[in-house]
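User: Here's a chain of 70 residues. Predict its fold as C-alpha cells.
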Amino acid sequence: MRASEYRSKSAEELNHELASLKQELFQLRFQLAINQLENPMRIKAVKKDIARVKTILREQELLAAKGTEG
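Assistant: Prediction complete.
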C-alpha cells in the first residue's frame, strides 16, 4: 500500500494494520524457516509497509503534540 493511502486512515486503523502486518511477517519468517516460502521478496515488502505505518503514526503523534503546545 502507498503512504498516501495510509495517511488517510485514523490512528486506530493504522494500529490494526500494523498488528496484521506484524502477524504476516511472523508467518512469512516461519515459512522461510521450514522452506515453504514461495516469494522471499514478500518479507522485504512487509517490512517496508511496517516502517511506513510506524512513520505515519509518529507523524500524527507529533502533529497532535504540536497542536496542544501552542
